[in-house]
From TrEMBL:
Superkingdom per UniProt: Bacteria
Domain Carrier: residue ranges: 8-84
Name assigned to this protein: Carrier domain-containing protein
Amino acid sequence: MISPPTAASVEATIIRLLIEMTRIDAARLTGDTRIFMELGLNSAMILELLMRLEEDLGRPMVGQVDWLHMETVADLAGFVAGRQDDGASRS
């Protein structure tokens, strides 16, 4: 059985996707980077990010994220890794 990704590996995936989407310098992106305040992502860009995460991780993300609690890249990574853990424990 393949183990679910860790928060650290999901964070690395999110950062890679954000670099591809925004062309922001990788040195500016960390777990503490604020998705809205620092990156200025709009709703269309968030949707694209979630769709790309779905592709990379093979799990539904669109409509699953409570953005009121997702301020930073690390917040999102922790949520996504937690969803992976939840899904793995149910199988």
